[in-house]
Each structure stands twice: as structure tokens, then as C-alpha cells.
Design the sequence.
């Protein structure tokens, strides 16, 4: 039976030791003491483990059903979603003006992890709604904010984003959906969208679709895209329901995983839509939602890795299989739990070191967004933008591997559905695809993000790392175990960047051939940086690390990452500097 325990000690370490959240000069963050956050995470964990988790397998087996143009979610989902709303979890970091609680993004990220660990399909409905809230908050006019935001914050209404069409996914310049103007801000939307998560369901009284479409006569390509608010039910100014709009679900996709989240084909037949932001500037507005979703995808990957890891640890401690050797080389007289075998421990440490390091990276990027939003810190915003494809791409690539490792630890039981690991593997696989495939994330990183603002963001990251190294030069153990490996990895990163600089402009394929490897290199390096930062906190706080303590476990796990995982940056650099010589040499018919 699958179980889940909220890692509250881990969360509090990240918030109060790693981020020092109460010392940030932002809003009322100074009131966020450890007692307060512990209570938040404990309450969220109870809801997640007691209500969300029991529905996870139910949802996986039953899936969603399309009945009379309405999607019916699995049994228990309506009540669970209602409890999520009524308990106030949907608006934790939203603006208090619209019913939110105004807490930091970093806390919201951790809450999202808790709920995604226990039931990712159910959590996606709320997560997409938060993205729609963010887009309308930033680009909506005052009447749109007043009408839609309170309902989205409370999840009385949920939200979606509609980009993909049958003939185009990433290449949005090919979008055919039309928007015929009726008056200044009102249009008739016609077209078809596919792969729309939460496009139709029975969890809320209204669904607010954000739809990319082209206004006839506008600029060609992506410059001609505009964004529209298209509600399932057209609301009156007071929020009451007026009438059903001409938007309907055409079909439900049959998927490998996340079965209980409805992935829909949506048909718009002269549906009433309201312009969000300026005409022909829709992609900019949509990216607000997409970037938040990409950060969320990285967190989902950590979440599924976490619950898979927790249960593989339990299994490894209970499963008796084979004799083991002690530290002095003596073979045990009887069979032992498999956690005593070095290969199992290697697998568990691969998981543990990635999850804790990846979580630290996610929450660090969330803190950069908080600084950007509350302090107008441009460097923080730039670095968060640079690392968004890394969070999405690297964490989901490795996160999927971590769920597969859990499946492997359980052996034959990992391949049997009722043991749960198969669902985690299937559910986590989508993270590498949706919100922009990971290959696209790598191209975005190398082709656009590295060069934005003259490379200022990657230089800012380098500055932060350099300052960290200087500030901790006197800590002998930290330098030996953490900073020296970090310096080696930093040299690998610089070598790859120099290769792009010298060759990328002359031959773009040279850089693009190594884009995915570079995304992994940067992700690996950044997690190494996070581990060094966490270790520095512990070394400065404790002259001697107590045996069997939380701190000792952290240091040992960090050492494992620095010695066994971080050196992969050297191998990745060698691949990158090979360029496109072989990759682009084969003729198409040689494949």
C-alpha cells in the first residue's frame, strides 16, 4: 500500500535556514516563523495523504468519462476538490485584494509538491487555474480582474490555456484559430485546440479558457497572435452565470498516465471571447502562464520522485533478499533487507540526492521570482527566466529516471500495478513532454536565454557562485568536499559556454546539437551549487555534526552528489564540444 509523509523538516530547513525567508524585506514575510510554516505543511499533508492519496489509484483506474458533452471525473474527486477550495489552499500566494493570502511563491511551490505527490491528476486542475489567474492579474483590465480573479483564486471557476492545434504544437506561427471582432474588446472565436488539460470537467461551476487566436488582417506569424478570455459559461458583471458559450469538448484523449485529469479536444464555434491585453501581443501574455506552468512541471517531477522514493525506502527496509557483507568483509549468516546491498543504497542515494538538491533549486528559483515581484529585482527576474527551462527540462528528465529507479528497487512488484510504482512512472513521463518538450526547452535555453540582455543572467549566476566561494574560503571541510568539485564543474560549464561563443554564431547547428546536453550540464551544476550552499549553512552552524542527525544526513547526501553525480558535467562537456560534425553528417535517407 502506497503511503506518504510530508518532509516537514526538509521544508523548514529550506525556508528558514537556506532562504531565511523571514529576513527577506518583502511584504509580511517577517511573520513566517518555523512554527507557522510547520502548521501549514502539517495541515496540507493531512489533506493530501488522507483525502488525495486514496483517490490516486481510483482515478488512475477509472479515468475521466465524456457523457453528454460533459466530462465526469472519478468518484470522490468533486468532494476532494471542494475541500481543497473550502480550506483555502487554492489562493495561498495570490493577491489578498482578490481573496488570496499573499504568502511567498516558495511556500506555494512546496504545497504544490505535497498535493502533486499524492494525486497529480487532481492537483493539475488547481495548478492551471493559478496560471490563468497570473495572466489575467498581469494583463487584464480592471473589470476583468474584478470579475474573474476572485473566482479563480477560490477555484469556484477553474482555468485552462489553449495553444496547441492539430497541425501545430511548438510552432505557434501556424495557429489557425480566428478571432472576429464584434466591438473593442469582444470577439467571436472559431477553431479547434487539442491536448487541453482540464478543458472540461465537473469540479467547478465555470471554466475560463485562455485562447491564442489570430485577428484577421493582423501581422503574420507569432506577431499576429492575440490572447482571449473565453468562458464556458458567459458571466454577468456580478459573476452570476448568463448563458452557455459556444465552446464544447470534442473528445477525451486516452493517455499513458494522469488518467484522472481530462485532456481534451476543444471546439470553438463562434464562441464569445474577450481580449486579454493588447491585440497582436498574445504570446507575451500567454508566456506568463507558460513559464509558471514550466516551473510547476519541475515541481511535479520532484513530487512524484519523492513519493516513489519514500515507498522504495520502505520496501528496501522490509524486503528480505540475499546475504550481505559487513564493513569488515564478513558475510552475514542470514538473508538481510535489501537496503544492506550497496547497489540498492546507490539507487536510493541517486534519488535522495537529486530530490533534495532539485527541491532546493526549485525553491531558490521561486525566491528569485518573489524578489522580482516584490522588490523589482531585474537580476533576480533574469536569472529565474534563464533557469525556467532548466527547472522544467532537467528536473523532469531526471525525475522520470528516479521513478524508474523506484520501480527497479521493487523488482517484480514494481511492475505490478497494485503496488503503485507503475503509476508513478506513467504519470511522471508526461512532464518531459507537455508545456514544451524538453528538446524545445534546451533550444530555448541555448538559442535565446543565454544571450538575452547580452548574457547578463548567466554572468549573474557566475557572480553568485564566485561570491559564495570567496565568502566560504575559510571552511576547510566545505572546500574539500563541496567547493572543489563545484569549481571543477564550473570549469566544465565555462568550457561549454566558450565553445558556444566561438562556434554558435558561425554555425548555429554546432550549439543546437549540444543544447540538451547543455541543459543537463547547467541543471547538474546548479544542483551542485545548491548542495554547496546547504552544506555551508550546516558547517557554519555546527562545529561538529551530530551522529544520526538531520544535518549529518544532509552532509553525507550532499557529498554523494558532489562525488558521484556532479562529475557528469565533464562528460557532458565532451559531448557538447563535439558539435554537429557527426549529427548533421548523415543524409536523411541514412536514418
Sequence:
Amino acid at each position: 500500500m502506497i503511503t506518504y509523509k510530508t518532509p516537514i523538516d526538509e521544508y523548514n530547513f529550506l525556508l528558514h535556514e537556506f532562504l531565511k525567508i523571514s529576513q527577506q524585506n518583502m511584504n509580511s514575510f517577517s511573520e513566517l516563523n518555523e512554527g507557522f510554516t510547520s502548521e501549514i505543511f502539517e495541515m496540507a499533508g493531512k489533506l493530501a495523504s488522507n483525502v488525495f492519496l486514496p483517490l490516486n489509484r481510483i482515478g488512475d483506474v477509472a479515468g475521466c468519462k465524456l457523457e453528454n458533452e460533459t466530462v465526469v471525473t472519478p468518484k470522490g474527486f468533486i468532494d476532494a476538490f471542494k475541500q481543497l477550495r473550502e480550506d483555502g489552499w487554492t489562493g495561498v500566494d495570490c493577491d489578498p485584494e482578490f481573496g488570496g493570502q499573499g504568502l511567498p511563491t516558495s511556500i506555494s511551490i512546496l504545497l504544490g509538491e505535497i498535493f502533486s505527490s499524492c494525486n497529480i491528476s487532481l492537483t493539475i486542475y488547481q495548478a492551471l487555474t493559478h496560471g490563468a489567474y497570473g495572466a489575467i492579474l498581469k494583463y487584464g483590465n480592471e473589470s476583468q480582474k474584478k470579475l474573474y480573479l476572485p473566482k479563480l483564486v477560490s477555484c469556484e471557476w477553474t482555468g485552462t490555456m489553449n495553444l496547441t492545434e492539430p497541425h501545430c504544437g511548438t510552432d505557434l506561427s501556424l495557429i489557425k484559430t480566428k478571432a472576429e471582432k464584434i466591438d473593442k474588446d469582444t470577439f467571436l472565436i472559431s477553431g479547434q485546440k487539442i491536448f487541453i488539460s482540464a478543458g472540461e470537467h465537473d469540479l467547478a461551476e465555470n471554466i475560463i479558457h485562455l485562447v491564442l487566436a489570430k485577428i484577421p488582417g493582423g501581422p503574420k506569424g507569432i506577431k499576429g497572435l492575440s490572447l482571449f478570455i473565453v468562458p464556458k459559461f458567459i458571466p454577468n458583471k456580478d459573476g452570476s452565470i448568463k448563458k452557455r458559450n459556444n465552446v464544447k469538448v470534442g473528445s477525451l484523449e486516452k493517455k499513458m498516465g494522469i488518467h484522472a485529469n481530462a485532456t481534451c479536444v476543444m471546439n470553438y464555434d463562434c464562441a464569445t471571447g474577450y481580449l486579454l491585453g493588447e491585440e497582436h501581443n498574445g504570446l507575451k501574455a500567454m508566456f506568463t502562464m507558460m513559464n509558471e506552468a514550466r516551473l510547476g512541471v519541475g515541481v511535479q517531477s520532484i513530487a512524484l520522485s519523492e513519493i516513489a522514493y519514500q515507498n522504495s525506502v520502505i520496501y528496501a527496509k522490509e524486503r528480505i533478499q540475499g546475504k550481505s557483507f559487513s564493513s569488515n568483509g564478513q558475510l552475514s549468516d542470514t538473508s538481510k533487507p535489501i537496503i544492506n546491498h550497496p547497489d540498492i543504497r546507490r539507487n536510493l542515494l541517486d534519488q535522495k540526492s537529486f530530490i533534495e538538491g532539485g527541491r532546493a533549486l526549485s525553491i531558490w528559483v521561486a525566491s528569485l521570482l518573489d524578489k522580482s515581484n516584490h522588490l523589482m529585482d531585474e537580476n533576480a527576474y533574469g536569472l529565474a527566466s534563464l533557469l525556467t527551462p532548466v527547472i522544467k527540462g532537467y528536473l523532469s528528465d531526471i525525475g522520470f529516471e528516479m521513478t524508474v529507479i523506484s520501480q527497479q528497487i521493487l523488482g517484480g512488484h514494481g511492475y505490478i500495478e497494485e503496488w503503485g510504482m507503475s503509476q508513478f512512472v506513467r504519470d511522471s513521463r508526461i512532464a518531459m513532454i507537455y508545456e514544451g518538450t524538453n528538446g524545445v526547452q534546451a533550444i530555448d535555453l541555448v538559442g535565446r536565454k543565454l544571450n538575452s540582455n547580452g548574457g547578463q543572467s548567466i554572468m549573474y549566476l557566475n557572480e553568485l557562485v564566485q561570491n559564495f566561494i570567496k565568502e566560504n574560503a575559510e571552511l576547510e571541510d566545505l572546500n574539500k568536499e563541496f567547493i572543489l568539485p563545484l569549481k571543477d564543474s564550473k570549469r566544465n560549464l565555462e568550457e561549454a559556454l566558450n565553445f558556444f561563443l566561438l562556434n554558435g554564431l558561425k554555425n548555429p547547428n554546432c550549439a543546437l546539437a549540444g543544447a540538451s546536453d547543455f541543459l543537463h550540464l547547467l541543471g547538474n551544476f546548479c544542483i551542485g551549487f545548491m548542495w554547496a550552499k546547504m552544506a555551508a549553512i550546516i558547517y557554519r552552524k555546527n562545529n561538529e555534526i551530530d551522529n544520526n542527525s538531520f544535518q549529518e544526513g544532509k552532509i553525507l547526501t550532499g557529498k554523494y552528489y558532489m562525488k558521484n553525480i556532479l562529475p557528469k558535467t565533464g562528460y557532458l562537456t565532451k559531448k557538447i564540444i563535439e558539435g554537429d560534425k557527426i549529427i548533421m553528417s548523415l543524409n536523411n535517407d541514412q536514418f
User: Anything to note?
Assistant: The chain is about 55% helix and 10% strand.
